[in-house]
Design brief:
- By secondary structure, this protein is α+β, with helices and mostly antiparallel strands.
- It is built from 9 helices and 14 strands.
- It has helices at about 1-10, 10-20, 35-45, 45-55, 55-85, 105-120, 135-160, 165-170, 335-360; strands at about 170-175, 175-180, 185-195, 200-215, 220-230, 235-240, 245-250, 270-280, 285-295, 300, 300-305, 310, 315-320, 325-330.
- The strands form 4 sheets. Strands 1, 2, 3, 7 and 10 form a 5-stranded mixed sheet that branches. Strands 4, 5, 6, 8 and 9 form a 5-stranded antiparallel sheet that branches. It has a two-stranded antiparallel sheet with strand order 11-14.
- α5 (about 55-85) packs across α6.
- The chain is elongated.
């Protein structure tokens, strides 16, 4: 009975994993329902994108069906022409009968002739005689349609092979994010690495915080998006993505993480989606890499281990075994108390500076009164 209750009552972390909008590998967990029938025809209008985005099994099925279907349809037309002209086996042929197509005397031979014509094989056993104008027109139409099918299927397969999302598979994020001090500020840090030696040109990284909020009017907004800025020491645009980078978001008063603490973070219900946009250097195609972090994947009071070192030969080495590993470090309990401590220290330093300045300039004693002393004209004689 207790195990049955445990299966129905799960921790908040398990519920959040089930409702994750973006998976760790960047796929969006969303489905569309109750779409009007008129809108479904939009997929047929944009048929090129539809064919490129469908799965490989359907592309291969379309590849086989398009060629075999066209061969069979044109074989029926060749068979009809041969039958109309009396070229088939068993038909009564008169003396001096001229065939439209040599050696096409049934449906099987008509199919073989259609295949040989469209694939330009031309074994030589079956050929047009040139005495029927309809056969000349039909062979022109079949040749043009065959070229169109070849170009279309080659384009679909090439487009699927060169999709930018394949390049995104070689860009990886750290499994977890960490919160620690960086350059005197409380920051949220993540790591991202490019597994290829070719660069991503014009790389930009940013984040979106997804959560359910309630407006002052009482309306509930599901998946409300809040922009999150990420940066490196050199800035946040045009990253030099030659080695793994540690990106950070400063948790200040304008940050949505400002009111969180080490205790309340695991109890939150939000999802941090991180995006990396760039252009592949080798193919000049734009790609986007996505991942997400839930509160249970953000470690408060931890810092990433170093992964870059220099070898004796002068090369830089990246140790990916420590890519997602972190170590506990001294970190404030919350952003608000950290700013309070900083303000208190600044205030104490300011007071100390004032006392030092007063010691240098002297102290104004109100017990003394400054008066003017005039020179006396009396002279004391000895």
């Amino acid at each position: 009975m207790f195990q049955l209750l445990q299966s129905h009552i799960q921790p908040a972390g398990h519920r959040s994993r089930k409702t994750r909008l973006v998976t760790k590998d960047g796929r969006c967990n969303i489905e569309f329902g109750n779409i009007e029938s008129g809108n479904q025809f939009a997929y047929l209008v944009d048929f090129w994108t539809t064919f490129v985005e469908i799965r490989w099994r359907f592309v291969l099925l379309l590849f086989v069906a398009s060629f075999t279907g066209s061969w069979f349809i044109f074989s029926l037309l060749w068979y009809w022409i041969a039958k109309s002209n009396g070229d088939l086996t068993g038909q009564n042929r008169t003396d001096g009968h001229v065939q439209c197509i040599d050696n096409v005397n049934g449906l099987t031979t008509a199919f073989l002739y259609s295949l040989e014509t469209q694939t330009t094989i031309g074994y030589g056993g079956r050929a047009l005689t040139g005495h029927c104008a309809g056969t000349v027109a039909l062979i022109i139409v079949q040749s043009l349609i065959g070229v169109f099918i070849n170009c279309f299927m080659c384009g679909v397969i090439l487009a699927k092979i060169s999709l930018p999302k394949r390049r995104a598979k070689t860009v990886t994020f750290s499994d977890t994010a960490v919160i620690c001090l960086k350059k005197g500020s409380l920051c949220l840090l993540i790591r991202v690495a490019n597994l290829r030696k070719t660069l991503l040109i014009g790389s930009q990284i940013y984040g979106k915080l997804l959560r359910t909020t309630t407006t002052p009017d009482g309306d509930t907004i599901i998946l409300d998006q809040v922009h999150i800025d990420f940066m490196v020491d050199a800035g946040k645009d045009n990253l030099f993505f030659v080695c793994p980078l540690t990106l950070y978001h400063v948790i200040n008063r304008s940050s949505p993480f400002y009111e969180l603490s080490a205790d309340t973070l695991p109890l939150q219900d939000f999802e941090l989606v991180v995006f990396l946009d760039g252009t592949a250097e080798s193919t000049s195609s734009c790609c986007q890499v996505r991942t997400s972090y839930i509160p249970q994947e953000i470690q408060w009071g931890y810092s990433f281990l170093p992964i870059i070192s220099k070898t004796k030969t002068g090369k830089y080495r990246v140790d990916f075994s420590n890519f997602s590993k972190s170590v506990r470090v001294t970190t404030p309990h919350c952003a608000q108390c950290f700013e309070t401590d900083v303000d208190q220290r600044n205030h104490n330093n300011h007071n100390q500076e004032n006392r030092n300045n007063q010691q240098k300039m002297g102290i104004n004693n109100l017990g003394f009164q400054a008066i003017d002393i005039h020179d006396s004209m009396d002279v004391t004689r000895m």
